[in-house]
Amino acid sequence: MSTAEDPADAASPTALDAKKLGELGELLEQALAERPPAFGLVGVSGVGKSSTVNALFRTALPTSDTVACTKEFRDVPLDVEFSGAGATRRQVALTVIDAPGLGEDLARDPAYLRMYEDNLDRCDVVLWVMSARNRAVALDQMYLRKLSRFHDRIVLAISQTDLVEPLDWVEKYNIPSSQQEKNIRAIEADRVEKLRAELGRRVPVVSYSAHRGYQLEKLFTTILRSCPPDRQWIYAGLKNFSYKDFLPSDRARKLAEHSGSLLGRLLGGQ
Q1: Which residues, including other chains, have CB under 8 Å from residue 151's CB and lie 6 or more apart?
Q2: Main-chain phi, psi angles of 226, to 5 degrees
Q3: Using CB atoms within 10 A as the burial measure, which of 79, 108, 135, 182 is most buried?
Q4: Where would I find the beta strands (DSSP E) of 109-171?
Q5: Which residues, in sequence order, are bridge partners of residue 95?
């Protein structure tokens, strides 16, 4: 004798999955509306914060080799592809906050520090940028001490690695020479050790070159992985970029040409 089937038992796994995905999508929309994902680039003047934003996202923020260009905090709104939590290739807003450089002028520092306090609360991750060329870290230590309540969200970024001695960058492959690489590792260890006393922990560190487009993919991935645990589900769905997304167009073209030439030689047995 057959019995009537419970409607709840008749629900297909596909229908249940679709319902859950829809609910997750709604949660995502709400979370993004209440607090859009954001990260900030901060540090002393002249380390290449705006250049880093330009290289990462192909923006056109003003930069200068001689004078500070960023006098106010500026939001750089970006549309980034999201493909998680029930969302299928939707565009979400990601805000990059470019900060004025500290230490440029003693008269400006108090106002800048107040702006830092007001704006860094909006950031899920704070990218503290230092130049590989500058061995002096006293200013960074001093400002980190003043901004202690943001220590838990800091990632250390060491810029301008292409200018590390002995200045023999391998142009053909867009990588540092073996001696440069060794010196870069020593610089990383030195900076982490000197800042650990202020930060109270070993922080994630990435060395890169905005000018060369070197290790920008790793930099962006480290930012995403360093967001607060309760926000990681939002960042987990952001597009996984290919290294080609971060190379300046002329370098991407040269690398593609070289890769094609190398592949041709391999296939031809040369």
Answers
A1: 144, 198, 199, 200, 201
A2: -100, 5
A3: 108
A4: 125-131, 154-159
A5: 38, 77
For 166, which DSSP code? T
Closest alpha carbon to 51 in 191, 163, 212, 249: 212
Q: What is the dihedral of CA 137, 143, 54, 107, to 10 degrees?
A: -110
How far apart CA 181 and CA 129 sit, in angstroms, is 19
CB atoms within 10 A of CB 75: 14
Residue linked to tokens 């296939």: 267
Find the mean pLDDT for residues 25-45.
Answer: 82
Sheet arrangement for strand 154-159: 74-82, 90-98, 38-42, 125-131, 154-159, 205-207
**Cis geometry, peptide bond prior to residue 229 (ω within 30 degrees of 0):** no
CA distance 52 to 160: 10
Which token pair is 150?
């943001």
Give the CA-trace dihedral at 87, 41, 117, 229, to 10 degrees.
40
**pTM, 2 dp:** 0.77
For the stretch 183-241, pLDDT in tens is 999 999 999 999 998 999 889 999 999 999 999 989 988 998 899 888 887 777 665 55
Average pLDDT score over the chain? 80
pLDDT at 128 over 90: yes
> In this predicted structure, which of 95-99, 177-181, 191-195 has the lowest mean pLDDT?
95-99
The whole-angstrom separation of Cα 75 and Cα 119 is: 10
Q: How far apart are CA 75 and CA 200, in angstroms?
A: 29
Across the strands, what pairs with 38? 95
| Tokens standing for residue 219 | 């930099």
Give the whole-angstrom CA distance, residue 141 versus residue 82. 36
Q: What is the mean pLDDT of the segment spanning 33-44?
A: 88
